[in-house]
Specification:
The chain has about 400 residues and is mostly helical. It has one domain (about 10-190, about 210-400): Growth Hormone, Chain: A. It contains 15 helices and no strands. The protein has helices at about 10-30, 35-45, 50-75, 80-95, 100-115, 120-130, 135-165, 165-185, 220-225, 225-255, 260-290, 290-310, 315-345, 350-380, 380-395. It is globular and about 60 Å long.
Amino acid sequence: MNEKGSPGVFYGYTIVIACFLFQGVGIGSYIAFGVFFKPLLTEFGWSRATVSGAASLAFLLMGALGIVVGILNDRFGPRMLMVVTGLFYSTGYCLLSRVHSVWELYLFFGLVVGIGLSSIDIIALTTTARWFVRRRGAMTGFVKVGTGAGQLIMPLTASLLILHYGWRNASWIVGLIALLFIVGPGLVLRRDPGRMGFFPDGDSGPGKPHSGKSGEGPSVRETMRTRQFCAVCLLNFLMVGCLMTVMIHIVPHAQDTGLDPIKAAGILSAIGGVSMAGRLLSGLAIDRFGNTKTILVCFAFLICSLLWLRIAGELWMLYLFAIIYGLAHGGFFTFISPLVAGLFGVGSHGVLIGIVVFVGTAGGALGPVLAGYLFDRALSYQPVFLLLIGVALAGLALTPFLKPAARS
């Protein structure tokens, strides 16, 4: 169908492609900050905890503002929100090229890029959840494949740009790429199918197409009081803290083992590439087997990969880690939105997923800084790997609580 509801290609697929693009460049460029680690350390002599702090600030701010984005998205829709925050994201990366002090690093990357990041996940996940019901897992998986594609392409792109043009010019170019692939796709977004005369999934049916608002789940206040919602939030806190620590520190760890910057960045890109398969497979598994079974499989892969990372000291071993971990990484970042929609409906999905993402970003902000602190103390990542294994086991223990909430 077109926008007027006449026969043709379902507009929901346009929504999914747009979300795929800005997820890929938005998350991929954020992950690519790990490639800027060594140049910043070399030029300024800052500690790893200091540089990690800028990434953590951006991530934490993404979560905090994500609640506001969720509320505004539920009320006004995603298009202008995506455009405005996309402009912040692009501007922040361009300004990174002007950094000469710690406060500038935290202002330009931590604050400005953080504002830009605030809508990348919330808008993509909520909009997809509203446009699809039967194929929600598969379409969310496809959108998150965009994230994997970005993690595959953007770190290598940034690494090559740094090699040929220096890190300052590289950050400017990354900012322009963000302008094109975040703001541009944001212009085609629409809040939900009902407002355009569609049914979710492109189905046809009697009655008026619903808009995904009230009546499709308990209220926000009721939801926040449930044990299930608390379990989802805590699970996301632990999970994102673990995953973001790996993504921020895997490149410097690989370089510490003696790999050159290009090969080290290749490990990060390999994780992104494999995670695309993890995202797509987990999306299909969610639709067929449910969220809980998919989550258990993801934890199995994650724990095995972290145990392997403790002894991985050669290039092939690190790439094997990337394969195992990448499957888990992709799965974890796919199931949260379908899980929230399945447990609590989509009427207030924007604000609910905003709260869950905020709690997750708190973990994601804490994890890399704590890892940098532990490394600076021990001059080794081994204590960090042990901590991550413990966090993964704690997350696994929460899965029995992820059952549908009782509704009044």
